[in-house]
Amino acid sequence: MSDDARDEETVTVAHGGGTGRTRDFLEDSVVPRFGGDADGLAVGLDALDDGAVHEIGDRSVVVTTDSHVVSPLSFPGGDIGRLAVSGTVNDLAVMGATEPLSLTCSLVVEEGVSVGLLEDVLDSMQAACEAAGCAVTTGDTKVMGSGDVDGVVINTTGVGVLPQGEHVPDAGLSPGDKLVVSGPVGDHGITLLAEREGFDIEGDLTSDVAPVNDLVAAALDAGTVTAMTDPTRGGLSTALNEMARKADVGALVDETAVPVRDSVAATGELLGIDPFDVANEGTVVFGVDAATADAVVDALRATPLGADAAVVGEAVAEHTGRVVLDTGFGRRYLSEPEGEQLPRIC
Amino acid sequence: MATEADDLKFRDPEAAQELAADIETQMERIDDPVEIMHVCGSHEQVIAKFGLRSMLPSDLSVTMGPGCPVCVTNMPEVDEAVALAEAGTTVATYGDMFRVPGTVKSLADAKAEGAAVEVVYSASEAVEYAAAHPDEDVVFFATGFETTAAPTAAVLQADPPENFYVLSAHKYVPPAMEVVAEMPDTDVDAFLAAGHAATITGYGLFEEFVDEYDTPVVVGGFEPLDVLYGVRRILEFVESGTSGLDNAYPRCVSRDGNEAAMSAIDEVFALTSGEWRGIADIPDANFVLREAYAAHSARRQFDVDPVSGDGDPLTEECICGDIMAGTATPEDCALFGEECTPQNPVGACMVSDEGTCKIRHEYGGHPEL
Q1: Tell me, what's the pLDDT at B366?
Q2: Of A75, A68, A77, nearest to A109 (Cα)?
Q3: How many contacts (CB atoms, under 8 Å) link A and B?
């Protein structure tokens, strides 16, 4: 890019939206700028996976990091504290590291935020840590002037250890693998959009934000998991497309098999936003060897978060890099949402 | 209380397969290609989202005409909104106008550079924003057809705050249908008219059109079964070689429509001729504020001076206009999916969730899936 074009292009919300623009930014501007050797690196930055994997001795060490911003700070089902722990624990878990070793907590706080609110957020982090069986072991606190940052930003970095070679990439799908979703899709994103828009919607809209490491462990114990990711920003649509693209396979998904709560589906229609396109914070998408798919679903359903787990489709050799959705009426592509999710006119 | 509505299943795939089988039989009897044009982005959404085209015989094409209000909003109108935002007013806009490119930039670009742009769901939300921010001049960028023109009219009639202004880019659909019907390249056998616009105008509005153009018009709803039912009804007209008008959305649409809404529109707006982006200068199809509402007219109260400029040279290659006239498909466009994507749209059809190109890009066309 010429210097003029560089100066003209500004960062927009879409750069951080978790979909195409984010991927372009990472591939064009971030990944090429970092290099050098890292000991025993098995999964690095260029994989754009949920975390990095180092092979050290007979162990694999998984490292992941995430900065958490959310508006509003507190929402039905959770708050930024629960999100900050779950997000990082879940990124470790979907790499296969279901027993997080250590978690950092780096706070950036806007001057003027009440100490009480901050303590509530920290309590919520500790509660989520207890649920996940991990602990915050180091951290940092910075305060910025009023208006320089929006409330509270929390960065968490997680480290997990597992036997060498047992990590699960999100690129491991093969044709014939079944696609399994661990629970209802769209709860977090639709709940937040409804909150943000100030819609007074009666019903049971609640974020799914939760650590999923026990759920993932149950799946790994029960069958052969070939690929795994958590469909956060960009939602199920983005997760499935990335899994298909990275593995050079197609995905055929039965829309009617994907669990979506009625309240989420209805609110999504009202907002003009597809529940498949929005973030989940306590849901996992698995690729599973077909022979063990039923066992994995049964194991997931026996966990507290996995009651609605279901096989939703399969990887196929055709349509490489794309997701084909059977709507029950006809078929069409399921594409990644692009940029910010905007409400529609009619 | 159980009502009849409780028993209606608009998303029954089995009923849809039955309708599709009927349609296939009709097409076999007609034994000629048939082109149906619909004029509504919501129709295109439901057709694409449910994969309905993959249920239809290949010689039956259902194309979208000038039915995306975002797409037909003219570039200078976007430029006006951008100029107002850059001049320091707060521009409140529907979400789908946010990224529509003007000559040089979109409202999203203006916001990224620091201008005040608020995304709202409704005209009344824009009014609420103005009331809550008395120190700001709030301009509602009023876009859309009769369905959104009526609520804009209603808030203006309800004595809005002094700092609330309207930049009207509202459009009126029926004259655009006439323009498309008269286009020499158009080969439309029948129209599937937009049910929600007809809830306002009433379906009786199309009687003259049917007589004048000898083309069947069926008003259709927005569930997948509504669309398939509307298509089957249209093919009945085509098969019998007659033109006619039918209301296939009677649970919402009446012959006379919403008279209160129509009279509000009529009191607040006058119709004037103007350009629909990429299509044509269409007579009496643009809603402008009447003199009585000059105090709330952004065009009257602010010296709007949109930057002209060279803009994106790719715009010259954009064929949105032909696509909206039904004479070309997105795949005919050299830019489609290459230089023009939802992330970097060249034409408005790639911006809105109701735009043909965006929908085709997201859901695919009529592929053998």
Answers
A1: 59
A2: A68
A3: 96
